[in-house]
Design goal:
Blueprint (H helix, E strand, L loop, with lengths): L2 H10 L6 E2 L2 E2 L2 H15 L16 E9 L5 H12 L8 E8 L10 E7 L2 H8 L2 H10 L3 E9 L1
Antiparallel strand pairs: 1-2, 3-5, 3-6, 4-5
Length: about 150
């Protein structure tokens, strides 16, 4: 997304026609985040990957907006635990995770990218015990978004 598009979104926030009862709507962004959060929180069921060809690598991207109760220690712990997935999750080829430095980060402070051998490996990751252990303490502290696609 270009800078001009980002500025359109930020300018649009103050547009009176986007307000209902004095509140800014930002409907499409809210709907996207709500949908992503719902999918993420719904027991981490394996993603629907019908469009991915068998054996085609899969990319899993994620970003977290931290809730006010989250501490710096917890933020750093998440990065360390996600990084520790290297070599421990079958089919996980690469892991990159860290603090977001983009000025266009829209409040997402932590983000990452993972590369899996294929759709089956990505689906297995969602129910892997190490991933579930991370989610147990992390989910109450974040507003997440995820994007998965074939590479």
């Amino acid at each position: 997304m270009t800078d001009s598009r980002m500025s359109q979104y930020s300018e649009r926030k103050d547009d009176p026609k986007d307000q209902v009862d004095g509140e800014t709507q930002g409907t499409s962004r809210r709907q996207l985040l709500a949908l992503a959060g719902t999918v993420f929180l719904a027991g981490m069921t394996p993603p629907l990957l019908a469009s991915a060809a068998e054996g085609e690598p899969m990319i899993h991207m994620f970003a977290f907006r931290w809730k006010a109760v989250a501490t710096e220690e917890q933020k750093n712990r998440a990065i360390q635990e996600i990084s520790a997935f290297r070599g421990k999750i079958p089919g996980l080829l690469e892991v990159y995770v860290g603090k977001n430095t983009s000025p266009r980060g829209a409040g997402y402070e932590t983000g990452g990218v993972m590369k899996f051998t294929g759709a089956a490996a990505l689906a297995a990751y969602t129910v892997h015990p190490q991933h579930k252990a991370l989610l147990a303490w992390l989910l109450p502290l974040i507003d997440p978004i995820e994007v998965d696609f074939s590479a």
